[in-house]
Amino acid sequence: ESVEAEVSTCSLCHIPYNEASVPFRVTMLKCAICRRGKVPDVLFTTIELPEGIPTTGTGCLLQAYVCRPKPYCKGEMNAKEISDGLPFLEYELHRLLINKLKVKGMNTIFGLRVQVQIGEKMLVGLATGTAVFLTPLPPPPVPKVSAGNSWTDEKKLAEIQKQLLDTVKKNRETYQLKPISVSDQIT
Fold it and tell me: Matching Pfam families, A to Z (predicted)?
């Protein structure tokens, strides 16, 4: 395949704005294929994987769910509780998806579907999609375990971080992704 054909396929991943006019906060990096366009560090899409887009390795199913308690109430108060709880449910789903992508060693979700179920005492969100490593985007950083001020057992934290690093390494081998380099580990 020619370099021009590769460049045209990687352009699907390029951000269509210049850096000064991006309408939201996004981390932009140079495209790993053409080195000219700018790409995001992660991409969530509801479309299916387009044919011919450059990927590395194989994809996998990615799923996250969140359950949030909701006080039992009726009428207008019920609507208010649902309205107040939905942004937090969506935020938590997004955070889980980002972390699961990092653990899988991937940087994109295609075919993302989000379902929200509202019960009398519970709000439940389910997000499902196909995780893929898009070659033009950078590899995700290895997640870092932090306990804040709540836990001081440094030995246990180091052990959990090592298990997490081993899981990421195993996932990158399983899905035939690029091996972990030293620069990927520094986050």
Answer: YbjQ_2
- Side-chain-side CA neighbours of 168 within 13 Å: the count stands at 26
- pTM value? 0.84
pLDDT digits (tens, 9 = 90+) for 44-66: 999 999 998 999 999 999 999 99
Cα dihedral: 77, 83, 86, 91 (round 10): -120
The single residue listed with the structure tokens 């992660």 is 42
DSSP state letters, 8-62: HHHGGGS-SS-GGG-SS---EEE-TTTSSSEEES-EE-SSPPPTT--EEEEEEEE
Say if CB 128 and CB 62 are below 8 A apart: yes
